[in-house]
Amino acid sequence: MTGLRSRLVVTARKPLVPWVLFGVALFAAIVFGILLKAKADSVAREDRAQIEVRERATEFVLKLTNVSYESIDQEVPELEELATGTLLDEINELFSEENTQAIKDAQVELSGEIDDVFIQSLGGETATVFVVATIEVTNDSSDAPVPGIARMEMGLDETSEGWKPDRLELFQSPDQAGIFPGS
Question: CA torsion sign, 64 to 121 to 48 to 124?
């Protein structure tokens, strides 16, 4: 009878092992699924941030490199709306009343196209972008448009209104001195 009892105990325990293994596998699959979903969400957030940073940098540089003496009074507030921090102060200084009048008097037209936008860094609430744009400047004293290449590094901050440029450093070739105000 002891042999029969031990067989019953052994037989009763065998079906439990597959269920335990199934439970462990199910738990592992659920944990893996949750971790995979979290990683996918994180990648999607990073992709959205890259798209937003690239779009905002492009929008700002296009507005900055497409200025006309005829519409400057409408264009400057648009630039101011896009910028924040130090860059906003620089825009206010660059397009002061005196400078704006000089642009109008000289009938300055600046037109530009974006060649490339490179995201150098993006982390947390800050980003750094390098932008290359082809530009042409005309005014009442030039016979033909003066071409140039604008290379600039832009810092952006994430604000409650989205990404906004807060810093802009312009890099010029020596042969392009004088194309931009203050150069």
Answer: negative
Joined together, the tokens standing for residue 27 give 């738990």
41 burial via Cβ count (<10 Å: 0-12, 13-18, 19+): exposed
Give the total residue count for the chain: 183
Which two tokens mark 183?
């150069």
pTM score above 0.85: no
Alpha-carbon distances of 94 from 91, 151, 183, rounded to whole Å: 5, 18, 12
Q: Which tokens in the block code for residue 175?
A: 């042969």
| Residue 34, number of CB atoms within 10 A of its CB | 10
Per-residue pLDDT of 50-76, as tens digits, reads 999 999 999 999 999 999 999 999 999
H helix intervals, the chain: 2-13, 16-64, 72-82, 85-94, 97-105
Name the CA radius of gyration of the chain, rounded.
31
Q: Whole-angstrom Cα distance, residue 67 to residue 113?
A: 12
How far is 120 from 134, CA to CA, in rounded Å?
20
Report yes or no: 137 and 146 within 8 Å, Cβ to Cβ: yes
Cα dihedral across residues 50, 52, 56, 62: positive or negative:
positive
Sequence-distant (6+) residues with CB within 8 A of 116 are 130, 131, 132
